[in-house]
Design a protein that fits this description.
Length: about 170
Amino acid sequence: MKVAVGSRNPAKIRSVETIVDSIGWEVEGVDVPSHVSPQPFSDDETRKGAYNRAKGCIALGYDIGIGLEGGVEETEEGLFLSNWGSLVTKEGQTYYASGAKILLPDEVSRSVRAGTELGDVMASFTDQQDISKKEGAVGVFSAGYVTRSDMFAHVVKLLVGQYHYDK
């Protein structure tokens, strides 16, 4: 089974590999567009980005496409970090899952609301480049208890579980 992750981000690819390795799926990261804004600002937009990435993998000829997208969601409590995933098969089956959410600190939220992508805010906040390819904001704000790969791995488990349930 040839599976593509709609991203070359190592954290996203790692999250898929750790889940599907035991079932023998070959995983490859590919560049496909999300067709949403660089910083998705709602669950709906984040979910659409994940779906578009998964669908883009299928268009490249893979058996299964997995799209993973991080975003933010405004609530009355503040701005939450969110994540969504979609698994699409070449036969057209589509599955969705969302994962953990965590409230972002006000100083980070202000910059994101002002139009700066969370990854850029986090680079400045932590003085580290490419944090979204490493532990991510969730890793920073959970003191390393949950990394970006961990957070997406949970979503991938839900996607693969739904896929296998239907078989």
